[in-house]
Structure formats: C-alpha cells, structure tokens
Amino acid sequence: MKQSLFFAKPSHHPPKEEISRSAQLLEQAWYVDKLFAGVYTYLPLGFRVLKKIENIIRQEMNSVGGQELFMPALHPIENYQKTKRDIVDILFHLDLATGKKFVLGFSHEEIIVPLAQRYISSYKDLPLYVYQIQTKFRNELRAKSGIMRSREFIMKDLYSFHATDEDFEEYYSIMQGAYSRIFKAAGVGEKTYLTFASGGTFSKFSHEFQTITDAGEDTIHLCNGCGIAVNDEIIKEQKTCPKCKSARLVAKKSIEVGNIFPLKTKFSDAFGLRFTNAQGVNKPIIMGCYGIGLGRLMGAIVETHCDKKGIIWPANVAPFDLHLLAFGDASVRKNANEAYEFFCKNGIDVLYDNRDVSAGSKMADADLIGIPLRAIISAKTKNLIELKKRSQETTQFLEPEKIITFIKSTHNEN
Amino acid sequence: MKQSLFFAKPSHHPPKEEISRSAQLLEQAWYVDKLFAGVYTYLPLGFRVLKKIENIIRQEMNSVGGQELFMPALHPIENYQKTKRDIVDILFHLDLATGKKFVLGFSHEEIIVPLAQRYISSYKDLPLYVYQIQTKFRNELRAKSGIMRSREFIMKDLYSFHATDEDFEEYYSIMQGAYSRIFKAAGVGEKTYLTFASGGTFSKFSHEFQTITDAGEDTIHLCNGCGIAVNDEIIKEQKTCPKCKSARLVAKKSIEVGNIFPLKTKFSDAFGLRFTNAQGVNKPIIMGCYGIGLGRLMGAIVETHCDKKGIIWPANVAPFDLHLLAFGDASVRKNANEAYEFFCKNGIDVLYDNRDVSAGSKMADADLIGIPLRAIISAKTKNLIELKKRSQETTQFLEPEKIITFIKSTHNEN
C-alpha cells in the first residue's frame, strides 16, 4: 500500500480528551476514529490489526472444536424476561415499527440457548461448542479508556453445552489453554494472568484473564505463593489466595482481556434446555461461556507495547509486515519504487511511505504507527536496504532478498 | 467436519410460515435460523457461505482501490438532522443512558462524510475509496422473503470521493465492471442485469443489479433492443428504454442484489465537505455509493440454484468442497474414515456424513444441503469412490487422488 493513497493522516499531537495511552496513540496514528465516547470506527490501519486478532482467536476456537456462526444484534425482550435480565441497566431498548419491544444484545445466552434447544435432545448431541465474533452493545453511563470500554464493541463469545459437570470442567480447562495461547500469540502472554474471580450467585469461581497495565480499571492480586492472580472481589471476602492460601499478595492495576465462566444450569433452566442421558433420564444441560473483547485486547496490546514515540506492534498483530521509507531525490525514489514492487510480488505486506514530506516526518510517523520492521532506502543505501526494528535503535544493511527471507521465517514461526 | 458433530439438523419439511423458496430451503437445511421476522442467525452452514460471498466481494473491492474499514452501528441523531434523514421511517431510535439520542445506521453516508472531511483538504487527497462489510438495521413494518428483506442485515457499502464529475463517472463505470465480476463469481451472472433506475431528486439515473427470479419483489423490463434492463419507476415515467428508446420491453420479476448510486454533492453539501483544486479554488466533493446486501445475494443464489430436492450451490460459494457419504457396515465405515482423513490432509473442505441414519436420509439431506460434489463410499465402491455432481444424475468411480486433483483444478479456475 502506498502511503500517499492510504486513508490515514497521523497527527503530530495526541487527542486531548483521551486519558489512556492506547486511546491517544490509536487515535493519533489513525487506527481508530472516535465518533462519540465509546463508539469508534476502525480505520484501515486498525481494521488490519482487528483482522489479525480475529484470526488468532478463530484459529484457537476452531482448534478446541468451536463451530462458528453469527447471531443477530436485535433480540426480542421476551427472551430476557425469561432470564430476568430485562432489567439490566446497560440494555439498549428499541421499538419495532410493529410495536414489538426489542433490545440490542450485550451477550447472547438468551439467543443461543433456545437455538441449541432446537438441536439438542439426547446425550448423543453433546457436547456442543458454538461461537461467534460479533458486535455487542452496552448502554454505559460513562464510556472511557478508548476502545477498552466502549458502548459498541466486537466480541468473541463461545458457548459450551455439556451432559455432566465433569465434561464441563474438562472443557473449561482446555479453554484455559486456548486462551493462554491466544494472549501469547497476541503478544501479551507474559503480562496476562489467569485470575480467580467471584462466580456470582450460581458458581463459586469463574476466571478472568487480566493483563497488567497502569491503564487498567481493575486491580488484581498476584500470589507470590503459587503464581496465580485473584481479583478484588475475592480478596475483599477472604484476604488469602484461594488456591494456596498464601497471604503474600501484590496488588497491580490490570485490564480484563477475557473471561471464562461456568453458567451451570442458570440459562438451561430458564429456557428448559434439557437432554436425555444414556439411561433414559431427562436432565438439565450444563453450560459455560467464554468471552474475549477484540478492541479491549487491541488496547491492552498497545498499552503494553509502546514508548514515548508511539506503538511497537508484536509482529503477529501488526497492520503490515514492513514499513518502507524513501528518503531522497528521484533516483532514490526509483530504487524505492522497485523495492516496493519486489516486496509486493513476494507476498510481503508493505506500507510504502512515498509521500512528499521530510525524512523527519516520515520517521516520526513510522515510530507512531509502530510497524515492527522498517526498511529505509536513501542515497547511502545503494543496492542494499537499511533495516531497523521498531524496538531497537541499531540498523543493518541487507539485500532485499534477505529481508524477505527474514519476514517469511517470522511468519512460519507463528 | 464430521456431520455427527456438526451444528445442523436438516428437517424433513420446509417451515410453513416462509413463502419464498430460498427462505424455506435455507431454514430447512439449517443455513439460517429465524429468531424473528427479518432477524436471522447464520448457522455454521450459512456462515460458511456468507464468508465465501464476503471474500468474493472483498477481493473485487480491493481490486478497484477500495480501502476496508469498519464503522459503528450507533449513530448520533445530529448527523441525520444535517442531511434531513432523521425523519426516515425505517430508522431505529434509541436513547443513551446520558439522554443523548442515537439511531442505528441503515446506511453510512452520515458517518463517512464527516470522517472523510478529516482526511481530505486538497485535490491531492482525491480520489478516495473506502468500504466496509458491516451490519445495517432497518425498522421495516413488514419483513418478508427470508434473508432477502430483513430488519438486520450484512451489507458491503463503498463510498467514493472525487474532484470532478468526469473522475466520478470513470470510477462509476469501473465499479459496474467489478459488480458484474462479483455476480458472475457468485453464480448469478447470467441472470443478473444492469438496470437503469431513477436516481431520485439529485441525479437522473442510478443503477441497480437485478437478478431475475419469480421470488423477486421488483419488476424489471428487459430491452430487446439493447440488452439492458429498466426498473419499474422509469417505465412508469417514459415507457421506452432510456438507452436505445426501444419500446420492446419484457417484464420480469426480479430481486435487487446490488446498487450503484451517484450522490453528486448531496452529502458533501450537508457537511461542507470541500477541497481545494490545483488552481487554488475551493469546491464541493462529488460522491458515489455502491452497495451489496450479502444475505440478499445469498437468497438470490438459492432462488436461482435449486430444484425440488434442495439447493445446488455454485462451487465458489458452497459451504464445503465435498460431501462424503458412507453407506454400510463397519468395513465401509473404516474406508470412509480413511478417505475423510485423506481429503482433510490434502486441504479439501469436506462434510463427512458419518451419522447412524439410513442411506435414504443421507441422500435426502445431501440433496437438501446442496454441496456441489458428492463422494459415496459403499460396499460396491471397493478402493474407489463414487462421485456425483449435485446438478447431475450420473456418477463415476474414481480414485481419491483424482477427486482431489479435480477439486483443486476447480479452485484454481476461480
């Protein structure tokens, strides 16, 4: 993509009304555009990152047997009356032209359970795992932290249906592994903790995946004893680690990037979702749900991958493989154009800064945008290309072929 | 995918409340699930078709310079007051917890124009083409025809921004070509006509792409003189073909699968979207918009590709490459399991009917689901596989390797 044509005009200054560093950087660099507090457009740069994150999640959900579908956002209010969630304050309400009452989905238990009911009758239909990557709506009184807490957001939600508690527990632990792989692939693995959370009225514990960052709205307590984390709610109740009982806990600010949740028979009971087991006994179905907010994750990646100059994307979720910069006169431009064509032909996803702006502006924008590899062509590079990692100050001079080999080897690692 | 685990339970009977054949078949075969009139879930089968259609469209939009982004569904009412579209009757209205008024987007001119305004200042920023594949909402009093006219639907909408009428017209004609390629690739090329439509108050003509089918809600008039089509609105006004003036017109029922629309300066004027040309003169920007409803297109494909037994998907948009059916005892099952593993290993997307149901049920479901190629393994096939096209009655006995070669050659054609 030639930057002269690219729908992005990075600004020299962060937006004043944003507090979190990720919101500032993502807006300043034209990853997202804020339409209204909590309501964002993903611009071409942000859309590319979103698709990378989506594919990492999709691959892992498929690997644990998830079947992808796509449910609507318009939900009849009756479904929420059955689960007594029609009084939830973050529901958006709207009226159909026919007079019928609808809400916008903030989650999809009320839709997937009656749908699963059409499919499941016997134990032979279980277990079942279905998921979607779809837009949710929450009528928050205050939306803040940029794309990390918004009124409209894209979420992956998987629902699992089981015959027995044991089967549920086995899958729940498989899903813990899938989530760990997702956060690792997205570059936040080291800073993301499996966190014990209060499971509410129908389950003792659920789990959150919390990424440590000062921009977080949550506080978690890292256990020096066993290495897990515990959320604030539990610590208020019991002061010690629920796993190893240690009291040596260190508080850290964090952001919830995912959660996994035992639903037991709460929603099955509300809709009468039952099955007949091998002995002919009719029983309620055990459920679990498993969420990841894609924008939330994107924000957490930026919070943990930036410096004073801008973003430093992990390669797996970067909008482009390579940022090609041309500094100089017509002959340099000619070399750069040829290099660009060469990279494109070889399947490298390049953003090529061919704009008529100063070298300083190009460097500043490249630092802000944060593509992990930068290739510079100037009068001094001759037949070679100056390669610099966004995360390092050192550069090396390489042949274009070597750069392609290097990028492809990185692709293969992932 | 093993059918015993697949989230689909094809029914023996079409749903009673649906009139259009596509709605009947798509619901009966578990491509879609109707939550409420005009509000559907895309089930795993339907989701796979949706993604194929999406990728055909994405490829063509990228080939004509479109840059993909993703705009929100929640829109501030103020933006619609500026264009005087806040009174449109199909708008869904909702209140934010803060009291602010919002609507759900039925289109995105009101969002993209102020966004483009942040980018465009000079003629050097033009032309600009941006698009998205995103969910729209229409508060229809009546929703009918299944996924072909719904209250919530996925649409591709591209917006183009130009310095001059000439530049717009050139792009408009490029887009006609892209649309023709999309409908051809989706299998409805021969039945889809570029149709002259009334452009409304601010443009003499726009164009629709109309697919001829008895299930259509529109009527178009095919011109025997020049081969184009004309919609009802124009014929009511002028009785003759607007291109060649012929009066030899044949009326046909049809469904609108896409439209391309000159917006002139209607929306630019409403938001003051202007640019400075090479002579330093400040001028309004010329716009066009280009839509395709993905569910609408899926419905039209089914309407034009079905028989009494079910759907017959064009290969490009089929949910799977191959439907593998095993008829027989344990030794047949063993062969079939091995063939399934072999196809999967070779990158073939197979639905494998390994269910404990009769051969008759398997054949009936396969006819209903409509995967274009069927591979049967039975006592009589021995080391070979009986291959049948969904569209033909004849079969042939082939080695598994030959089937892979055949499918891969079809992939390469597309």
Q: What's the short version?
A:
By secondary structure, chain A is α+β, with helices and mostly antiparallel strands. Chain A has helices at residues 21-28, 44-63, 77-83, 109-119, 165-185, 232-238, 266-271, 294-304, 330-345, 359-369, 400-413, and strands at residues 32-36, 39-42, 67-68, 74-76, 92-95, 101-104, 128-137, 152-162, 192-198, 205-212, 218-223, 229-231, 249-264, 274-276, 282-284, 286-293, 306-307, 310-311, 322-326, 350-353, 373-377, 385-389, 395-398. In chain A, a hairpin with a 2-residue loop joins strand 1 and strand 2.
Overview of the molecule:
- Two copies of one chain form a homodimer.
- With 414 residues, the first copy, chain A, is of the alpha+beta class.
- Chain A has eleven helices and 23 strands.
- Chain A has helices spanning 21-28, 44-63, 77-83, 109-119, 165-185, 232-238, 266-271, 294-304, 330-345, 359-369, 400-413, and strands spanning 32-36, 39-42, 67-68, 74-76, 92-95, 101-104, 128-137, 152-162, 192-198, 205-212, 218-223, 229-231, 249-264, 274-276, 282-284, 286-293, 306-307, 310-311, 322-326, 350-353, 373-377, 385-389, 395-398.
- In chain A, the strands form six sheets. In chain A, strands 9-10-13-11-12 form a five-stranded mixed beta barrel. In chain A, strands 20-19-21-22-23 form a five-stranded mixed sheet, sandwiched between helices. In chain A, strands 4-6-5 form a three-stranded antiparallel sheet.
- The radius of gyration of chain A is 24 Å and the shape is elongated.
- Chains A and B meet through strand 1, strand 2, helix 2, strand 3 and strand 4 of A and strand 1, strand 2, helix 2, strand 3 and strand 4 of B.
